[in-house]
Write a structure and sequence with these properties.
The complex is a heterodimer. Chain A is mainly alpha-helical. Chain A has 16 helices and 3 strands. Classes of the chains: A mainly alpha, B alpha+beta.
């Protein structure tokens, strides 16, 4: 039964596109590690390739699981996640002034990445079970609480980027669950109204980043430095780029964080407009395919999950690129499948696996 | 339906990004490429060391030494507490102070930041060893000015200072740049354009930490020209020790040429403290001192000459034939001008004297009368002839011209007509007259050489080139006049009752004149000026002590010692 469904319902692009993007990402990670002064033996491309294997294993496992059972676990997963984030706040190892990682030996693990997928699942589970309640204000309290707790725990780490993604996920899932327009409008107004309150949650450097965005020349060598270097890298790429390993901004280490949040600048510098166009196109294609899954699935739970994944990916890609070209403040959001990071890569494969799973089982429901 | 709406929104947002990327990369690509180029290509200046300054025998007076700066590369240096503590221990600063300094002084992540300049060599080695554990910490070397003899000769050699805005404006066409050091006094200032090295530079490709990856081009820096002075270090040192603790100046000059063999001004200063900003406090203390150690009293200080001016008074009266060698004048101990009484320094008087005795005794009453014979116009004219009232032209900055008063001068400056009493004062070197020690030296030398007025100078060689001997002028004053005055000066030294007898030097014939100038309530300035050998001088000297008592005491004794040293050194 499974096998038949597998052949019949499986959109190959859902697995091919991420793999193409990851492969391109490995090239750029290689380039980013090639910088002359990364002489401590760290090769981000090698490590990422290992994470890729782990991600594919996770994908295979999840694709072959029963989607309903996965959703049944969502509250448990949510509880464990909240607990982990709480522990992290008090006991997490400080790295770059932030408590985002658990370290076990050389292995580091970033719970906030998994919080995204867990939020998608828990929201899908709750909204799916309370489809009509969601149309009332009372019914909205629980989804907001579910998202709010994780949001506060993560923004406190501080990880502004991941926290914002949670809000984006909540927003798009409520949108899909056909929440009345007046509530949606109220939500937007409430969001704007509460921003001064959220401002106080931010760390000094985060506030500075946001202010620098309003006036980039305010601090050209501090918070503004990265964005200036990133713009130079992308802009100097021109139409066809400066060639693989040929970007001086990246290779001479003018570009900080080139292997994580600013990997897109490496693409822009070395492959130029042609390269970024290709990468953007791959992402648009992938997201579009995921949206198609959402359109054709009959399962409301599945639809919610798929839309959560689509929203999460789209938000991350758009904000990350906008950030590296200076159209948005730097908030620390990685480029899915491309930026270096094991937790992020595995989480993205899990998300894709869920989409494939739902796509495969759509006729079962 | 909602999904297709979301799809449209997402595609719209991506389209905005694509358009913006196209604008950045294809429209403004060149602009960003220029910025990228500026990022990676840096001109690393190579400073050309300053030329050395030597004494006449090639002893170093000013040179360059290697200084070690403790430097931090902000991007590489992650100031965790342990690193700061360790560094603080080495530099004797607290970790928190160090952290603040690093944060405040960081210009750019890739611009090295000096956290302590000019550290001792031992400390530099210790820091270098530590830098293995503390990435981003390093020792940079640079060449800095070095004055091996510290205070000695500081007024001749001068010192350096950071170029200021006005100087930069005036000198930028000549290759001076901000942060350059320029000469601020002495030869360092006067010959700055020769001493200054030519800056070179390396055009280099650098990484984000400012580290050089590849040289693209190099222009070798050039060392400034070396300067050889006329100073004799040993003589300078001798006079320096004689003058220790005094305030004043002493100069020794070659009579024929005007070469300065020694020039000492006290108090003095250590020019080394201006070189590194090691102790800005000590500069402040130096500049704030009430005894003005920065003033070169030999050329910049203008003082009443007192009795040494009697040589000018004599010249005027004799050369203008207002009196003769044989004329005799009486000194009862005082001189009456109308109802005004002018005293001699000797209460019971010198009796009847010729001009030779007058000079020997430095008799005031005698010169009151001689001065009146010459008149104010005669005194002023001869003072100017001897080079007073204008710069000597020595190759040092900040020379003072002094004041040679005339009737017109007094009318203009004091709004008063000239009184005969002014002339009487003028004759013995008091009143409005102000001179510098170098002017007195020149004047004395002209008397000794029977009319050669030289321009004193300090530099005999610039780079490999001999400097043309300085100009000499023959004064149109009769030989007889000079010989008469010289006779008086010889007697002042040789005669048991001569005022300058303390200046005698064993085995040498010395001629001299003392001066004790009234200088207000704080006492008298003491002068001695003279030359040797007395008949055909080879060297002239002047010793001046601010509030130094009588010229016949300390200054004459010092002169004796200086003459003896000249003999010992083989000059006489």
């Amino acid at each position: 039964m499974y096998r038949i469904n597998y052949r019949k319902n499986f959109d190959l692009f859902l697995i091919i596109l991420p793999l193409i993007i990851v492969s391109a990402g490995l090239l750029f990670l290689y380039s980013a590690s090639h910088g002359i002064y990364e002489s401590n033996g760290t090769n981000f491309a090698h490590r990422q390739a290992m994470w890729l294997l782990a991600g594919i294993v996770m994908l295979v496992i999840i694709v072959n699981m029963d989607f309903r059972r996965i959703l049944d676990w969502s509250y448990l997963c949510y509880g464990i996640m909240a607990l982990m984030l709480l522990v992290l706040l008090f006991a997490g190892g400080a790295r770059m002034g932030a408590k985002r990682w658990f370290s076990i030996g050389w292995l580091t693990f970033q719970p906030s990445e998994f919080a995204k997928i867990i939020l998608i699942m828990v929201l899908a589970f709750y909204i799916g079970n309370n489809r009509h309640a969601i149309r009332t204000i009372k019914g909205l309290i629980t989804p907001f609480l579910l998202a709010g707790v994780l949001f506060l725990l993560i923004i406190k780490e501080p990880d502004l980027g991941s926290a914002l993604i949670l809000l984006a996920i909540l927003f798009i899932m409520l949108l899909v669950s056909e929440m009345p327009v007046k509530y949606m409008a109220g939500l937007v107004i409430a969001g704007v109204a509460s921003s001064p309150f959220l401002w106080n949650f931010l760390k000094e450097y985060q506030k500075r980043r946001l202010l620098v965005f309003i006036n980039p020349n305010m601090d050209p060598l501090g918070a503004g430095y990265t964005i200036i270097q990133s713009k130079i890298a992308i802009g100097s790429g021109g139409l066809f780029g400066r060639g693989f390993l040929g970007g001086t901004q990246n290779q001479l280490n003018f570009l900080p964080e080139s292997h994580t949040d600013f990997i897109f600048a490496v693409i822009g510098e070395e492959w130029g407009f042609a390269g970024v166009l290709l990468v953007v196109f791959l992402f648009v294609f992938l997201i579009s395919r995921i949206l198609s899954v959402a359109e054709r699935t009959n399962d409301f739970y599945g639809k919610l999950v798929v839309m959560g994944v689509a929203g999460m990916l789209a938000f991350q890609v758009i904000v990350n690129i906008a950030m590296t070209v200076g159209l948005m403040p730097v908030v620390g959001i990685p480029l899915p499948f491309v930026s270096y990071g094991g937790s992020s890569l595995i989480m993205n494969f899990i998300a894709i696996a869920l989409v494939i799973n739902i796509d495969m089982h759509r006729t079962l429901f | 339906m909602i999904i297709s709406f979301i799809r449209k929104i997402i595609i719209a947002l991506f389209s905005v990004l694509i358009v913006y990327l196209f604008y950045m990369q294809c429209v403004r690509g060149e602009y960003y490429q220029d910025l990228a180029k500026m990022n990676r290509i840096r001109l690393l200046p190579l400073s050309g060391p300053r030329g050395n300054i030597y004494d006449r025998d090639g002893n170093l007076l000013a040179g360059n030494r290697l200084a070690f700066d403790c430097v931090v590369m902000p991007q590489e240096f992650y100031p965790d507490h342990k690193a700061l503590e360790e560094l603080g221990r080495l530099l004797n600063k607290s970790a928190s102070v160090l952290k603040d300094e690093i944060r405040e002084n960081t210009i750019a992540p890739f611009v090295p930041m000096v956290i302590k300049d000019d550290v001792a060599k031992e400390l530099a080695i210790a820091i270098s060893e530590k830098s293995l554990d503390l990435p981003g910490l390093l020792i940079q070397t640079r060449s800095v000015r070095y004055y091996p003899h510290k205070n000695m000769g500081s007024h001749v050699i001068g010192y350096l200072g950071k170029i200021n805005e006005d100087e930069l404006y005036a000198l930028s066409d000549y290759g001076y740049k901000a942060m350059d050091h320029v000469g601020r006094g002495g030869l360092e200032s006067f010959y700055d354009s020769y001493l200054k090295g030519e800056e070179g530079g390396i055009q280099a490709e650098v990484d984000s930490r400012g580290r050089e990856l590849r040289q693209l081009g190099i222009k070798e820096p050039e060392k400034g020209k070396d300067i050889t002075t006329t100073i004799d270090l040993e003589l300078e040192a001798h006079i320096d020790s004689l003058m220790e603790g005094e305030r004043g100046a002493a100069i020794v000059m070659s009579s024929e040429t005007g070469e300065i063999l020694a020039l000492v001004s006290k108090p003095d200063f250590d020019p080394n403290i201006f070189v590194s900003a090691l102790k800005p406090d000590s500069i402040k203390i130096l500049l704030g001192r009430s005894d003005y150690p920065m003033i070169d009293r030999a050329i910049s200080g203008a003082y009443p000459p007192g009795s040494v001016f009697k040589l000018v008074t004599s010249s005027a009266a004799l050369d203008m034939k207002r009196m003769s060698l044989h004329d005799q004048l009486n000194c009862p101990g005082f001189y009456m001008l109308g109802k005004w009484r002018f005293n001699c320094w000797k209460d019971d008087g010198h009796g009847t004297e010729t001009i030779i005795d007058g000079i020997k005794n430095s008799c005031n009453v005698f010169f009151y009368q001689v001065g009146r014979k010459a008149g104010v116009d005669g005194l002023a004219a001869y003072a100017v002839k001897y080079g007073m009232g204008r710069n000597s032209g020595i190759d040092l900055p900040y020379e003072s011209a002094g004041t040679v008063p005339t009737r017109a001068w007094k009318l203009y400056r004091m709004r008063q007509s000239w009184f005969e009493g002014d002339t009487v004062n003028y004759a013995i070197g008091q009143g409005y007259l102000l001179v510098t020690p170098i002017q007195i030296l020149r004047m004395t030398n002209a008397v000794g050489t029977e009319g050669i007025l030289v321009k004193p100078f300090l530099v005999r060689k610039i780079g490999g080139l001999e400097v043309k001997g300085a100009e000499r002028r023959r004064l149109d004053i009769s030989k007889e006049t000079f010989r008469t005055i010289k006779e008086g000066m010889k007697r002042a030294v040789d005669d048991p009752s001569g005022t300058a007898k303390a200046a005698r030097a064993k085995g040498l014939s010395v001629a001299g004149k003392t001066g004790t100038a009234e200088a207000g309530p704080k006492g008298t300035h003491a002068w001695f000026t003279g030359f040797s050998p007395a008949d055909k001088p080879q060297f002239s000297l002047v010793v001046f002590l601010e509030y130094g008592g009588k010229g016949g005491d300390k200054p004459a004794k010092m002169a004796s010692s200086i003459f003896a040293k000249l003999k010992e050194l083989g000059y006489l």
